[in-house]
């Protein structure tokens, strides 16, 4: 039972270790750095009562060397060392699907939905043309209906994910409305 990581994401992981220290004055020194770039080493002191710690603001797809050094006045404990590789950064939207197309509406859905996305902006307008409308959807949702459209028209639909970091990622798809019944 030794130092290991759980809940690994693209930017964080949680370290868990066995309870080694018992004295109130004891503490751990935690050192971590991207492998091969030890100049970026970060050091943190952790109270001896802790057996877990969340490390965040890490780089995606990076292997970190982690050393937990128990600092005790009573016993010597060897440093606990582990290596953790963060996941690749997921990007949303990775796909945009158009379905349930009618004369005046269609359904737009996208994937994946990520915790790091605050909202999605759906821009749509007829092709060719430059009259564009905007629909904003909460980041927890992965679909919406676009309506009040013109029958038998091709629309360009762009879904933009707005990340908490302020970054944006967009993906477009074309949608065609069905021919409507002629209403005189």
TrEMBL record:
Against CDD domains, the record matches this protein to:
FN3 (cd00063)
InterPro entries with a match to the protein in the record: ECM_Regulatory_Proteins, FN3_dom, FN3_sf, Ig-like_fold
GO CC term, one of those recorded: extracellular region
Where does it reside?
Secreted, Extracellular space
* UniProt keyword annotations, A-Z: Glycoprotein, Repeat, Secreted, Signal
Does this UniProt record's set of keywords contain RNA-binding?
no
Source species, domain of life: Eukaryota
Q: Which Pfam families match?
A: fn3
Q: Where mainly located?
A: secreted
Fibronectin type-III domain sequence ranges: 1-90, 92-180
Q: What is this protein called?
A: VWA1 protein
């Amino acid at each position: 039972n030794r130092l290991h990581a759980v809940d690994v994401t693209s930017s964080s992981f949680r370290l868990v270790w066995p309870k080694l220290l018992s004295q109130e004055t004891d503490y751990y020194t935690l050192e971590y750095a991207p492998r091969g770039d030890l100049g970026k080493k970060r050091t943190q002191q952790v109270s001896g009562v802790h057996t877990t710690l969340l490390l965040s603001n890490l780089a995606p797809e990076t292997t970190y060397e982690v050393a937990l050094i128990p600092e005790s006045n009573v016993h010597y404990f060897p440093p606990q060392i582990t290596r953790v590789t963060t996941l690749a950064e997921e990007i949303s939207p990775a796909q945009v699907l158009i379905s349930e197309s009618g004369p005046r509406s269609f359904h737009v859905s996208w994937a994946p939905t990520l915790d790091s996305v605050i909202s999605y902006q759906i821009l749509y307008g007829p092709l060719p043309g430059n009259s564009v409308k905007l629909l904003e959807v909460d980041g927890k949702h992965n679909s919406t209906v676009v309506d009040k459209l013109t029958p038998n028209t091709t629309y360009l639909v762009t879904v933009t994910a707005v990340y908490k970091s302020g970054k944006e990622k967009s993906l477009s798809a074309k949608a065609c409305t069905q021919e409507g019944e002629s209403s005189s």
